[in-house]
Amino acid sequence: MKMKIAITMRHLFLMLYVSLFIGVLAGILVKLFLHPHVHFWWEEIPAFGAIYGFVGCVIIIVVSKALGHHWLQKEEDYYEKH
After folding, report:
1. Angle at 81 between CA 79 and CA 82, to 5 degrees
2. CA separation for the pair 45, 53 (Å, rounded)
3. What is the C-alpha to C-alpha distance for residues 7 and 9, in angstroms, rounded to an integer?
4. Does the pLDDT at position 1 exceed 60?
5. Which phi and psi (to 5°) does residue 36 adopt?
6. Sheet strands (E) in the chain
7. Is pTM beyond 0.90 here?
8. Backbone dihedral region for residue 6 (phi beyond 0: left; psi -120 to 50: alpha; all else: beta)
9. From CA 61, how far away is CA 69, in angstroms rounded?
C-alpha cells in the first residue's frame, strides 16, 4: 500500500523558517564560542561581509547600467543614418 505525502505550502514555509533559524543560530554559536581566526583587520568589523556584498552589488548595477546606456544602446534613428 503506497502512502502519498502531500507537502503543502505551509509545510514548505515551516521548513524554510526552521532551516533559517538553525542557520542563524549556528552562525551566532560559531561567533560566540569558536572565535574564528581572521586574516585581515577589516574582517573583524561587524557585518563587514554583508556591507561588502551590498556595495559590490550596487557597483555592479551602476556599472552595467552605465555600460548599457553609453555603449550598448543605439539612437532611435541609428540604422537610418548609416
Report:
1. 70
2. 14
3. 7
4. no
5. -60, 140
6. none
7. no
8. beta
9. 12
Residue 28 cell numbers, joined: 551566532
Contact 52, 58 (CB under 8 A): no
Least confident of 1-5, 6-10, 65-69: 1-5
**Cα–Cα distance for residue pair 5/15, rounded to 1 Å:** 15
Dist. CA 38–CA 42, nearest whole Å:
9
Amino acid at 3: M
Q: Which amino acid is at 36?
A: P
6 pLDDT more than 90: no
pLDDT score for 7 = 77
